[in-house]
Amino acid sequence: MFQVVPSIFAADFTRLGEDVRRVEQAGVKMLHVDIMDGHFVPNFTMGTPITESLRKFTKLKLDHHLMIEDPDTYAPIFIKAGADCVSVHYEVCRNLDRTLHMIQDLGAKAGVVINPATPVMLLENVLNIVDYVLVMSVNPGYGGQTFIPRSLDKVRQLVRYREERRLNFSIEIDGGAGLENIAEIARAGVDWVVAGSSIFHAPDATQAAREMQRIAHEAISIQV
């Protein structure tokens, strides 16, 4: 089922609770939480106190994207803090099979992330393990970047793999999604669209999230 997943990286942290309530009113089911270590990506963001606070404040699913060099150490910590879904980068996992199974064994859904320069074919041996695949449609580390159109070719390739092998992983995309391209993204076969600036920097975050969902669902319905 198609979902818009607001990224709190773009929210106003002085009014985070209010921003979360706004997107809850739009009917979203999940929040995206970007974790950056300042090494794998040139930025540094939230630690476990944010996750713990969100878990106490909202019942929405918490989708954690670990942009860090040591996911094996920190994935368990974020799961304990309240993460429901945890995705790790293919580019940093030395034993990806083991890492994904560890996340699942701890009770969370396990995702694998690929950067814009990483081909989908490298994931062939874990597609029967993962709960979801996150395709980066910008280079990770900063919000507000321009969407990379060729990312949708990766999405279509993943859709083919999923259909041919009768697998059931979800496909997520992150970076540059907005009202101007959400229909194309949805038609490509994406299940979860991460949206940060296009929601939280809009005049009305509730309306922005609702409108993105409306356009996407209409695009899918017309396609069918």
Unreliable parts = none
Enter the CATH topology name: TIM Barrel
CATH architecture name: Alpha-Beta Barrel
How many domains make up the coordinates? 1
In order across it, which strands form the biggest sheet? Answer: 1-8-7-6-5-4-3-2
Shape: globular
CATH homologous superfamily label: Aldolase class I
Radius of gyration: 16 Å
Instruction: Name the quaternary structure.
Output: single chain
Instruction: Summarize model confidence as the mean pLDDT.
Output: 94
Order of helices and strands: EHEHEHEHEEHEHEHH
- Structural class comes to alpha/beta
Strand content is 15-25%
Please give the largest β-sheet. 8 strands, parallel
The level of helicity is: 25-40%
Tally of contiguous helical segments: 8
Give the CATH level 1 class. Alpha Beta
| Distance between the amino and carboxyl termini | 14 Å
Total strands: the figure is 8
Commentary on this structure:
With 224 residues, this protein is an alpha/beta fold. The protein has one domain (3-223): Aldolase class I (TIM Barrel, Alpha-Beta Barrel). It is built from eight helices and eight strands. It has helices spanning 16-25, 48-57, 71-81, 96-105, 151-165, 182-188, 197-200, 205-223, and strands at 3-6, 30-36, 61-67, 85-89, 109-114, 132-136, 170-174, 192-195. Strand 2, helix 2 and strand 3 form a beta-alpha-beta unit. Helix 1 (16-25) packs parallel to helix 8 and helix 6 (182-188) crosses helix 8. It is globular and about 45 Å long.
